What does this fold into?
Amino acid sequence: MMSETISRASVCEILSDIYLTDGEKIVSIKEVDKAYNAVLALPSAQPEQKKGTWVYKEDLKQYYCSECGYPSLTYDDTYIYGMDLPNFCEDCGADMRGEQE
It folds into this structure.
């Protein structure tokens, strides 16, 4: 199983739901299974990194982020000065390096 970060508060909330209201700590296997499945269904606390590409708009001679539309380098910057497009969008943080393994 892959390691994921989940919220401690969310797990505690799930576990508190299986205890009886009088504080009794005896629960049925059915309730433990229900809590276990609820913990497995929790989303990761660390969102997946957005991935994008630099899209060149011919009419503006400018590169734009495919995720947020933020303008980056112009064609002249990359062609004349030999500059590389950034690996990450300066605005939304999308990873612009292409497919990751």
